[in-house]
Amino acid sequence: MGNRALSGLLSAILAILLAAVGAEAATDLHPLLAAPPTADWTDVPPTSTNLIGDFTAHDYAAYVAGNSGIEFDLNLYGFTRGYALEWAQRGSRDLLVERVFEFRDAKGARSWYTLLRLLDKIYGNYTSDIPMPPSVPNSYGALFTLPDGALQSWIEFRKGNLAFEVVADSTTNDLSATAVTQAATEYASAPSQTQVPPGAGQAVNDWIRNIGIAVGALVVALAIVITITIVLVTRRRRPATFLVGGPMMSPDGAYWWDGQRWRQASIEAPPNAPRSPDGAHWWDGRIWRPYPAARPPG
C-alpha cells in the first residue's frame, strides 16, 4: 500500500475515532432528572402540547408560546440542549414536571436562572415563596395559585453549567414539599460541569454573547420585556388532558391507559372520559372521538 493510500486510511480511522469520542464525551442529561417519588406516578407520553425528552432552544420557545424572543435569550446565554420528563399521579391526576437546561458554561446557567427567578417574582398569580433547604444552594421556590384554583409549585436552581426546573401541579394539594425533595435529589447528583456536545451553544457570536452577559442586568431587563407575556401564557396553559380530565393516551392516540394496561380507543372508551351532550362522542384530552358501539355479548 502506498504512503498516500496509507495516510488516507489512517486519517479516515482517526476521524471515526474522534467522532466516536466526541459523541461519548457529551453527558447524558436524562439521568440528571430525579425519578418520581412513588410508584403511582406514571410517565406522560409525548404529545403536541407538552415538552418531553430532548429539546432545543427552538423547541422550548415553540412550547411556551411560539415566540423567537425566548429562543434568542437561550442562545444568547449559550444554551446547548435540554431534557424534560413529566409524570401524572394515578387517582389524583397531579402532575410533576422536571427539566434540565445545559449551557456552555456557568455564566449562561446563572443568567437563565436569574431571568426565571425575576419572572417568578412579577408573575400575577404568585402566592408566596417556597423555603429552600441549605442542601440546594442557588435555588428559588415559588407557589402560584391559578385562576381555576390549581396550585403550582415552581423550583428553579442552578449548579455549574446546568439550570433545573421542577414543577408540581395539583387542583387540590400543595405539592411544594414534593417539588423541593425532587430538587434536592437532583442537586445532590448533578455534576459541577457536564461535557457539552462539540460545537454546541454557539448559535450567538461569542463577542455579542460576552457583551450581553457582561451587562447582565440590562440583558435581563430586555429579556423580561421580550418574554414575560410568553412565559405567563405557559404558566396558565396546563396540559389539556389535565384541564378537562382526559385519559392518558398513547403517543399515536390509539390506546388509553386504565391504570394497569393499555386499552384500544376504537373499541372501548374510558368510563370517566367527558362525554358530549348527546352522548355520541368522548374527549381524549385533544379531540372528540365517536363513542364506540356496544359490543355484542359473547
Give a structural overview:
This protein has 298 residues and is of the alpha+beta class. It folds into two domains: 24-242, Protein Transport Mog1p, Chain A; 244-298, no CATH class. Helices cover 35% and strands 22% of the residues. It is built from eight helices and twelve strands. The strands form three sheets. Strands 1, 2, 3, 4, 5, 6, 7 and 8 form an eight-stranded antiparallel beta sheet that branches. A two-stranded antiparallel sheet has the order 9-10. A hairpin with a 5-residue loop joins strand 3 and strand 4 (95-103). Helix 2 (57-64) runs antiparallel to helix 3 (68-76) and helix 4 (106-122) crosses helix 7.
Summing up helix and strand content along with how strands pair, one would put the structural category as alpha+beta
Q: From the alpha-carbon coordinates, what is the Rg to the nearest angstrom?
A: 23 Å
Number of helices: 8
* CATH level 1 class label of the largest domain: Alpha Beta
Sheet having the most strands: 8 strands, antiparallel
Written as H for each helix and E for each strand, in order along the chain, the element string is HEEHHEEHEEEEHHHHEEEE
Domain tally: 2
The percent range for helix content is 25-40%
Binned strand content: 15-25%
Low-confidence stretches: 17-23, 212-245
Mean pLDDT across every amino acid position: 77
- CATH topology heading of the largest domain: Protein Transport Mog1p, Chain A
Please name the defining characteristics of this protein.
single chain, 298 residues, alpha+beta, Protein Transport Mog1p, Chain A, 2 domains, two-stranded antiparallel sheet, 12 strands, 22% strand, globular
